[in-house]
């Protein structure tokens, strides 16, 4: 029997005297075909160094270890770390970390990136990929922060809440368009590969899920002169995305730009006073950010 079916998992958890921890987003994929879909979407080869956040029982890890040059897998839960260690012991190119992958909501634990850096250094010309069935409570910081890390991924393939997937691929004027859509689309091509009902997991989550693929585009990424500034500025003006853009820029740049300066910038961009933040596409936001940055280079959120 596969060691990731519902019966196997239920028995193992019972033997260990534990139950899945909701606070850690422990919903395990029990439709094993979907592991294959994830791996195929990531197009894994022996040139890839893979980061997995959430080892779980190690089922996906083992499959990735068969294909990739190296896998760094991170698990917060001691019981699961132990369970996965039993299965991963025969894979010397798998680095297992028993830590919280995130130091805080804006930063990875430095040990994660150190381990990734070491594996990348061992395999020249390797590509870095994130492939994971992510715990839903940390999916946004994991995907967002990775794009600001020292080692930027070539591709990220992740199982996430469907609602989050919708936000990542959303277009201007739509209900789901926001700072996260802009942050992803300014530097990557993002798509939803597969939608999944709760029944493919044990225990079943309360929401639908999606597998997303985000492929970083170096040309797009290079067209953002200051990624950190852009990230912060877009976050600030999208807090009230339905409001008038002018009000949002004025509020975000309070103490840094006067209302007259904001009006000058909007006039230069030929944006009316009635323009709403939610209507701005990525190229327009890039241009706006650069005009703001030129006048307030030291601004931070
Ligand atoms: C959705 S499960 C995925 C497990 C497994 N990869 C699978 O495909 O079935 C998420 C896993 O992430 C772990 N986890 C949750 N928060 C974490 C964090 N902050 N750092 C590392 N692992 C975490 C959970 O304990 C759980 O094992």
UniProtKB/TrEMBL annotation:
Limits of the Ribosomal RNA adenine methylase transferase N-terminal domain: 34-218
Any Pfam family: RrnaAD
The protein's name in its UniProt record: Ribosomal RNA small subunit methyltransferase A
Keywords, sorted A to Z: Cytoplasm, Methyltransferase, RNA-binding, rRNA processing, S-adenosyl-L-methionine, Transferase
Entries under Gene3D superfamilies matching the protein: Ribosomal RNA adenine dimethylase-like, domain 2, Vaccinia Virus protein VP39
Listed transmembrane segments: none
CDD domains named in the record: AdoMet_MTases
Localization per Swiss-Prot or TrEMBL: Cytoplasm
Family note: Belongs to the class I-like SAM-binding methyltransferase superfamily. rRNA adenine N(6)-methyltransferase family. RsmA subfamily.
GO MF term list: 16S rRNA (adenine(1518)-N(6)/adenine(1519)-N(6))-dimethyltransferase activity; RNA binding
